[in-house]
Amino acid sequence: MYKDTQVYLFLGYGSEYVLNPLYNYMVKLGYECVEVDMMKHPSTISTLQSLIGRKVVLITSAHLFFDKMNFKNIHFDAHGSNVHILAVLEGLNPIRKVYYPHDLIEPLNPPEFPWLPLFDVFLSPLPHLKHYERYTKVVEVGWIKKLEPTPPIIKGRLNIVHLLSEFIVYNRIGFESTFQYWCAIWNQGVSVKLPKWPGYKEFEIELINKGINVYSAEKNIFEIINENDVIITNSSSSVNTEASLSGRLTLNMMDGMIPTYMIKNTLQGLPGLHILSMSEGAHYISELRAGKRQPLINDEVLKPFDFDLAVQALTD
User: Fold this and answer.
1) Residue 73 pLDDT more than 50?
2) CATH number of the structural domain 7-147+304-315
């Protein structure tokens, strides 16, 4: 068991906090670690204040500017415990600062790039982000949600799952309107997995009542990808990259949440990913069910997370 005098602060919020596996790994190694998921932590401010004066190593996967006000302006929802990451840097003055993105599509928002030099290390989930070295040191460690290589699809099996994005908007629309919008897809034997945002539990219950197979929002996304042969997505979230770069056939449904040109600009070129309208998607699935199409597997690009290399980057 390794011990030192530093405390490792793991900081983020909700489904954009992806560091729990690394936190658990370092706790088992004997490091003193503090985990603050600001969406559910009971006392974010007091916990952070208790670390003032300590030798803190900070690792975060949160957007740099999402305090309570900015979170509300962007997501139309306020979380009273959200703290500006830059304020944490100023308040705690960590001896080492490490950033790991929660988003594979857009690891950093454009306004965040000028602030990346504040961090000592950028842990990269992908092999093509070496150009971030113009801002800080880059260490490629793989994707933290992925713990093992993706297995090949099983001949004769056709499991299809929808990894729903933009849940904040759908939650405001309400369940019945959401279900009517997606029922042509979901009623074709498609399972659904919701993100872990406020309101998801009520949606899960309603989906089950409609006869839809529901994956727990707590379940690792790659366990779900491994169990399915076709992945349905919407919007431009990381699940598009997670599924397609793991070699799975991925169908992105243009649900109107993001303009079509933005979806195409962001996702075109990902292997095995098809951008479809809702009606095209429903037809594509019906052809898969009828055996007129096959869920071909592509090369696996996304690599499992290297925990030991990540620990080294935090502790050097």
Assistant:
1) no
2) 3.40.50
What are the domain boundaries of the chain?
A: 7-147+304-315, 160-289
Check if 7-147+304-315 and 160-289 are the same fold: yes
Confidence at 109, pLDDT banded by 50, 70, 90: confident
What are the pLDDT digits (tens) for 166-176? 998 999 999 99
- What class, spelled out in words, does domain 160-289 have in CATH? alpha beta
At 2 the pLDDT is 47
Q: What is the pLDDT of residue 71?
A: 47
31 contacts: CB under 8 Å, gap ≥ 6: 2, 3, 4, 6, 8, 315
Q: What is the pLDDT of residues 286-308, one digit of tens each?
A: 999 999 998 877 788 899 999 99
Question: What tens digit of pLDDT does each residue of 146-168 get?
Answer: 999 999 888 889 999 999 999 98
Question: DSSP for the chain?
Answer: ----S-EEEEEE-GGG---HHHHHHHHHHT-EEEEEETTT-TTHHHHHHTTTTS-EEEEE-S-TT-SHHHHHHHHS---TT---HHHHHHHH--SEEEE--S-SS-SS-GGGGGGGGGSSEEEESSTT-GGGGGTSEEEE--BTT--SPPPPPPTT---EEEE---HHHHHHH-HHHHHHHHHHHHTTTEEEE--SSTTHHHHHHHHHHTT--EE-TTS-HHHHHHH-SEEEEETT-THHHHHHTTT-EEEEEE-SSS-HHHHHHHHTT-TTEEEEEHHHHHHHHHHHHTTSS--------PPBP-HHHHHHHHH-
